[in-house]
Specification:
Blueprint: E1 6-7, E2 10-11, E3 17-18, E4 21-22, E5 28-29, E6 32-33, E7 40-45, H1 73-76, E8 92-94, E9 97-100, E10 113-114, E11 122-123, E12 127-131, E13 140-145, H2 151-154, E14 162-169, E15 179-185, E16 196-201, E17 215-220, E18 232-238, E19 247-256
Parallel strand pairs: 8-13
Antiparallel strand pairs: 1-2, 3-4, 5-6, 7-19, 9-12, 10-11, 12-19, 13-18, 14-17, 14-19, 15-16, 15-18
């Protein structure tokens, strides 16, 4: 039997009753198991309360619920270069932008942020984090860093799985988009040579139009469940060949279980 994760679009993790019966952890109804062991979202960021910044020459300034995120090169890399993961000769490190609706470049990007239904569809009034391709593709590597987390103390049970989950959109009308590199480090200031590369995404063929669905990606953080240290995630965009290279991320979460 296939694994069932939702009933009437409600994640099983969030179901507390079925046919007016209250479910306890570990209960099984018709073979459906109510998860146990402290499943939780450690942190979730959807960017809705952030100030829009859609100029490639100026980075998003995180605030409020997103304090702890960082796009300032002086902070992220200590003022130096991140590095050049795409090996294309780019030498300048830059930050990420904060988008609203469509991106400002033609022939690239989504029509809006991820819809609150989390079904991959678009919300034209929503906000998301992205790289503005215009003025960036020729010489820049774009880096944004999350707040830090000590997963060994944040988790209910370090025997559970730990994952970084986020939704991605990268439509380019000529298939020339940025590659996405995801790094981790126990320092709030890092570079390509110091951080550990967790995951690379180079195939964006699923985004064949502005309206193509957002796609959720999962990166395992299981190797860091029991380490008593604060870790930071670095999202790095590099490797585009034209201005039609906007790469967009929404609904970033650290999830246990």
């Amino acid at each position: 039997m296939a694994n069932i994760s939702k009933i009437k679009k409600v994640p099983i993790d969030n179901i507390t009753k079925l046919s007016n019966r209250t479910l306890a952890e570990g209960d099984s109804v018709l073979g459906l198991l109510k998860p146990s062991g402290g499943t939780q979202v450690i942190a979730l960021y959807n960017f809705e309360d952030q100030t829009t910044q859609e100029s490639g020459a100026s980075d998003w300034n995180p605030s409020g619920t997103h304090s702890g995120w960082e796009t300032d090169t002086a902070v992220v890399t200590g003022g130096g270069s991140w590095g050049n993961p795409a090996s294309n000769g780019n030498t300048t490190t830059d930050g990420w932008n904060l988008g609203f609706g469509s991106t400002t470049s033609g022939g690239t990007g989504p029509t809006g942020a991820l819809h609150a239904d989390l079904d991959g569809s678009h919300d034209t009034s929503g906000r998301y984090m992205y790289v503005e391709g215009t003025g960036v593709k020729d010489d820049r590597v774009c880096v944004v860093r999350t707040p830090g987390f000590n997963f060994s103390t944040a988790m209910n049970n370090t025997g559970n799985d730990l994952n970084l989950k986020f939704w991605l959109h990268q439509y380019s009308s000529n298939n020339s988009g940025h590659n996405l590199y995801i790094y981790i480090d126990d320092s709030s200031t890092s570079t390509e040579s110091d951080a550990t590369l967790l995951h690379t995404i180079t195939d964006f063929t699923e985004y064949n139009t502005f309206s193509a669905n957002w796609s959720q990606k999962t990166v395992s953080l299981n190797s860091y469940r029991t380490t008593d240290a604060t870790h930071y995630i670095y999202f790095v965009a590099d490797g585009a060949t034209t201005f039609r290279c906007d790469i967009c991320i929404d609904n970033v979460e650290f999830k246990e279980g």
